[in-house]
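Table S2 (text version). Query chain:
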Amino acid sequence: VFLLVLLALGWPLRAPATVIAPPDFDALAAGSDYVIRARVTETTAELVPSATGRKIVTRVKVDVLEVIAGEPPADLVLVCLGGRVGDEELIVDGAPVFNVGDESILFVKGNGRAFSPLFAMTYGQYLIRTDADTKRRYVARGNDVPLESVDEVAQPLLDAPAAAAVKASRNLAQALSPDEFALEIKTARRRQGIHVDDTK
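Corresponding C-alpha cell output:
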C-alpha cells in the first residue's frame, strides 16, 4: 500500500540497497547462464502486479551479435526491476543501465527470475567503446572505466566522479579489446571444466 501511495504521488522510489560483492573473474565467467555480445535495440518500462501491489520493470530487447558462452534464447529480452512509467519511477541502486544503441558484453544470470538479469548486477556489464583518436574498440566496466586486465573485475566499482578521473588517466591502447575479453571468458570457463563451443 505504501508503495502504491508513493507511486501515485509521483515520488521516485528507491529499492532497498543491495550490497553486491565484486565477483572474481572466474566466478563471473563460470557462474553466468550465458555470455553474449549484444546491442540494445529497445527499452520498455511497465507496471506489473507484485506481492506488495505493483512494481515497475523494464524490458530490454537486445540484438545478440555474438554468443561467447552458453545458450541464450533466440529472442532475448532482459527483464530488470526498476524504471520510469510516466511520472512514476523506481530506482534500484547498483543496477545496470541500458541505453538504446549501446553495445556490451553481458554476463546473464537468472533473467526473468531475479531482479537483475546480470550476474552481480553492474559487475556483469562490460561496455564496448571506441577510442575517438585511433578508432580502436575496447571494453569498459559498467562505470565506463576501461578494463586493462581481467583481474580488475574483482575490484569495487568506483562512483561516477572517481571513475571519470581514472578513465581520463588510462591509456586506451592498453584496454582489452572485445575479442581479447571474449577469449579470456572462454579460457576461464574451460578452467572450470565447462564446455566451450568455439564454432559460435
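Notes on Table S2: Residues 1-11 have pLDDT under 50 and may be disordered. The longest strand covers residues 53-70.
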